[in-house]
Amino acid sequence: MTPSVERDERVNPSLEVTxxxxxxxxxxxxxxxxxxxxxxxxxxxxxxxxxxxEDGQAAIRxxxxxxxxxxxxxxxLLDMHMPIVDGCEAAQRIxxxxxxxxxxxxxxxxxxxxxxxALAAGCDVVLTKPVGWPELLAxxxxxxxxx
Length: 147
Known about the structure:
Number of strands: 7
CATH superfamily: Response regulator
Radius of gyration: 15 Å
């Protein structure tokens, strides 16, 4: 289905907001409640169900539970710097349990080393905070076109 474009008059009369038929499941893993809220707001335009995790361990549990229930996530956004289990280890373990969908690393560290570590851990792409909706949407579309 083709997305529709609407104008959000409440925020900015000239700002176009892309809307989609909502479907699918997404997981947001970030230790910052503010970042989770923002990403949730972005993803609710596209995904029907959004699960949030406050650390890497909770993200792994969510992926395992979804896989066991045969309702895997269609997208995972994973902060690289979280407590308990960091993003790189979480990505490795998520891939190890058989998740093959898009896994997007989100980091506040713009270093080449951080990006390479995320990719080596199994992430498909790395985005640097702050992440805006146009950048996130383009990333999602590039990872899900034809799937």
